[in-house]
Amino acid sequence: MLSQTVVKRLKEIVGEKNVVTDKVGLLTYGYDGTLLSGEALGVVSPTTTEQVVEIVKLMNEHDIKLVPRGAGTNESGGTIPSQDSVVISFTKMTKIHEIDTENFVAVVEPGVINFDLQVELEKKKFYFPPDPSSFKASTIGGNVGECSGGPKCFKYGVTRDYILGLEVVLPNGKVIQTGGRNFHSEPGYDLTRIIVGAEGTLGLVTKVFVRIIPMPRAKKTMLAIYDKVEDASQTVADIVAAGIIPTTLELMDNLLINTTEDFTHAGIPRDAGAVLIIEVDGYPEDMDGQVKTIGEIASKIAKEFKVAQSAVEVDQIWTSRRSAFGSVARVRPSYGVNDITVPRSNFPKAIGGVLKVAKDFGVTIGVVAHAGDGNLHPLILFDQRNKEETETVHAAEQALCMMALDLEGTISGEHGIGLVKKKYLDKEFTPAAMEAFRKVKRSFDPSNRFNPGKVIDL
Amino acid sequence: MSNVNISMLKGIVGDAFVIDSPSEMANYLKGQGKPAVVVLPGNTSEVSSIVKLANEQNVKLAVGGAVADTQGITGGIAMVMSRMNQILEMDHMNLVAVVEPGVLHKDFLLKVTEAGLNFPPEPYELETSSVGGCFAIGDSDSKSFEYGPTRTFLLGFEMVLPTGEILDIGNKCIKNVSGLDFIHFAVGSQGTFGIFTKLLVKLLPAPEAKKAVIGTFASMHKANATFNTLIKRNVLPTRMNLINASLAKNAKPGTEGQFVIIDLQGFKESGKNIANEVAAVLTLGGGSDVKIIEDEVEYEQVINGWLKVRADLNSKPEQTVEFAVGPMKMPQALTQLEALTGDLGAYPGVIVEGLLGFVGLALPEGTDKLDLARKVNKLAMSLGGNVKGLLGHKLKAEVYNDAEMWKQTASLLSELRQQFDPKGILNPGVSLEP
Ligand SMILES: Cc1cc2nc3c(=O)[nH]c(=O)nc-3n(C[C@H](O)[C@H](O)[C@H](O)COP(=O)(O)OP(=O)(O)OC[C@H]3O[C@@H](n4cnc5c(N)ncnc54)[C@H](O)[C@@H]3O)c2cc1C
Ligand SMILES: Cc1cc2nc3c(=O)[nH]c(=O)nc-3n(C[C@H](O)[C@H](O)[C@H](O)COP(=O)(O)OP(=O)(O)OC[C@H]3O[C@@H](n4cnc5c(N)ncnc54)[C@H](O)[C@@H]3O)c2cc1C
To answer: ipTM of the assembly?
Structure first.
C-alpha cells in the first residue's frame, strides 16, 4: 500500500483523476497480453515530461519502484507489477507534436497509439513501417519498449530501424535526449539503440522521434495455398533465392486457416495445410515482373496461387491474418503466444520442431509465422482453469524455446523477454553476454528502480 | 606506465608477429603517438591473451584494421587485425556473411558483389578500412536513406572485451529482440567496449540494375534546388549527392562547377523511367552536361569518385565540420552557411548528401573549428538539425543552456565505458568528451 503522503503528492503532481489506488481500478493494470498477473501499489498517468520527472523523484525519495506501461498488450509479462511497484501509465501522453513529411520525421508522445499515428500519416500519404498486429491498440512507447516487429520486417526492418531519437527520463530523475531528427545525432554511443527494446528497464521514454517514409506507390498482395506447411517454406526459400525482397511473407497453418475462416470467410479452403500471404511493393512498373516470378515459384508447389484483384480482396486477406491470435479463442478458452525465430534456412526444421512439441506434449498448437524472417508464433491452445494442462503448456513452451536455440535461433523475435522468458535467457546467452547486459543496466539504473525483475536481474 | 613485455607478446603470437623496430612499425601506424610495439594476432584467443596481458601490466592498447591510430598509446601496444582476414562463410539462404574483422572493407565489397549480394555501407577510408572498423565506427552514409545506417547490417559478433574475456552474441536471425540490444549498441563504440574478432554481417540481394545520373551546376544553390524538386516529386534515389567545385575535380577529373551524382539502385524497369525523370529535373534546374550512366565501368568510376571525396573528408576529422538538417531545409541551410563560409563553390570543400540533409565542410587552413562548429550548430538547430555526433550533442546542450543535460549524458557515457573497461585500457585515443 502506498502511504497517504505519497498518494497525496502523486495527486498534486498529476491531478486527482490521474492516480488510481482502489482495488478495482488497479486490477486492469495487473494484466498484459500474457496470462500472468500482479498487483500494483498504484497507477499514475502523467501528461508531461515534467510530471514524469517529479514522479521519478518522488518514488526515489520513498524507494518505490516503477513499472512503465503503454497499452499493456505485450506478450512477455513486461508490464506486470511483479514486485511492490507503482505503474506509470503513458496512455495520457498522446500528443502528436509534429508530422514533418518533407523531412521524414514525426515527433510523438509515447502514449500515441500506433494506429492513430498511421491514420494521421496516411492523410499525407506517409507511414511508419513498424506495424505489429496489435497496432490498433499498442502505443509507440510500447513498440519502442519491445522493439516490436510486424508483418513488414523482411523488407522494412523492426521498430529500432525507425527510431531516430528519444527523450528519456533516467532512473535518477534527469532528462536526456538521445539521437535527434536524423541519423547523425547520437552522442558517442548509440544510446537510442540500447533503450529501444530495453522493455522499460533503462529509462522512461517521454518523446519519440520516428522516421516516416512515403507510402509505396504500388503494392501487390498474393495468396498461395498449400497442402503441407513444408511446401510453403520451400516457396519462401525460393523467393529469397530469386533475389526478391517481399515486404511480407506471412504463413498460417491449417488450424489458423480454420479459426480465421470462422471469422472472416475469406474463402481459403479449410482443408489446406498452409497459406502464405505474399506482398511486394515499390514502383508500379516493377510489380508485374516480381508478381510473375513469385507466381512461377509458388505455382511449382502450391495448389493454388492468386493475386488479389481489388482493395477488398487485399483487406480480406489481411483481416484473416490480423485476427489470427484472437480467432483461436473459440477453440479453447486460453492460448499462449510463443515467439521464436530461427535463421530462415532452418524454418522448415522449426515447423517440424513445432509439430514434434505438439505431439510430445499432447497439446494443440497452431502456427502463424513471419516466414521470411524465420519468426514463428506457435499458439498453444488450452484451458487455463485446468492446472495440470497449464503446466504441460509451460513445459511445451520451454521446449519450443530450446528447439529454437538448437536451430541457432533466438527465444524472442519480437515480443521480448519480460518475465516470461527471463528464465531461459542464460540458455541463449553466455555468461559474458549476460554480464554485458548487467553492465548496461548498472550504468543506467544502479538501484534497479525501473521495471525491476524484467529481462535480467542485477 | 609499466613497459610492454615484448617477450610475453612473442610467446602469444610468435616472434614474427611482434614488431618493435620503429621503421617497420611505421607501416602499421598513423598519428603522432609512439607505441612500444605492434602486434598482429592470428585468432581470437591470441587477441584475448594480448588484452589480458595489457590489463595485467596496465598498458594501453589501440586496435586498427590495417593501420592503428597511435593517439594515446605512447609506450603501449598497437594491435593490427590484418592477419584475421578471412571471410568464413557466405550464406546465401540467410543472406549473412561471417567475417573476420581484419578483412578490408574494399575486399569484402568485391567478394560480396561476386556472390551476387549487396553490402551497402560505404568504406570510411578506401584502402585501409576494415570490416571490423566499419562497425566500430558505425556511421551512416549517403546510402542510409534507402538501406539504413551501418548498424542495420550487424546481426551478431564475437568480441574480446577490455578485460580479455570473450563475448559471443547474436545469430543469423534478422529479427531478434532477446536480452538488451548489445548487438547494435556495440556498433559505433569505436573499440571502447571491446575488439571485434568475428562479425555476423547481414547482406541483401544485389539490386537488379544500377544507374547514375550526373550533371554540373554553376552554383551550389541551383544544384541543391533540384534535390528539393526530386523530393517533392517523391523521387527518392539511392544516393543524391553534391560536391562543390573545389572538390569536384577529385571526384571526376576535368569537372567544372558543382558536381551532382544521383545513384539509382533498384529494378530495371523503374530505373529507366526514374533516370529520365532525374535527368529532366537536373536539366530544367540549370544543370549542364547532364548524363545518364548505364555503363558498368563508368558507373563504378563515378561512385568511386564520390567515395574518394568522402574518404578525404573522413581522414581529417580535425579539419571538418559536419551537420545535418531536414533535407528540405537544405536551401536555407546553404544560404545561411554562405554567410559564414563565403562562396560555397570556392570553399575548400563542401559535400551534401541530399537525402539525409547532411553537409560536410572541409575547413580552410587555420580555421577555428570549434568556433565555426558552434555557429553552424546554431544554424542547423534553427532548421531542426544539429552538428554531427557527440560534438553536436554538446553544442546543442550549450544552446539550450542545459548544462544539466550535457552533464547527464557525459556521465552516462563515461559510466558505460568504465563498466566495460574499468582500467581504461582500450583505444584511449577515443574521447567521449569533445
Ligand atoms: C493480438 C496481439 C497481436 C500482437 N502482434 C504483435 C506483432 O505482430 N508484432 C509484435 O512485435 N508484437 C505484437 N504483439 C505484442 C505487443 O502488442 C507489442 O509488444 C506492443 O509493442 C506493446 O505495446 P503496448 O503499448 O501494449 O506496450 P506495453 O505492453 O504496455 O509495454 C511494453 C513494454 O514497454 C515498456 N514501456 C511501455 N511504455 C514505455 C515508455 N513510455 N517508456 C519506457 N518503457 C515503456 C513496458 O514496461 C513494457 O516492458 C501483439 C500482441 C497482441 C495482444
Ligand atoms: C570519431 C572519429 C574521430 C577520428 N579522429 C581522427 C583523428 O583525430 N586523426 C586522424 O588522423 N583520423 C581520425 N579519424 C579517422 C580515422 O583515423 C580513420 O580514417 C578511420 O578510422 C577509418 O580508417 P582506418 O583505416 O583506421 O579503419 P579501421 O582500421 O577499419 O578502423 C576504424 C576504427 O575502428 C576501430 N577498429 C578497427 N578494427 C576494430 C576491431 N576489430 N574491433 C574494434 N574496433 C576496431 C579502430 O580503432 C578505429 O577507431 C577519426 C575517425 C572517427 C570516426
So the answer is: 0.96
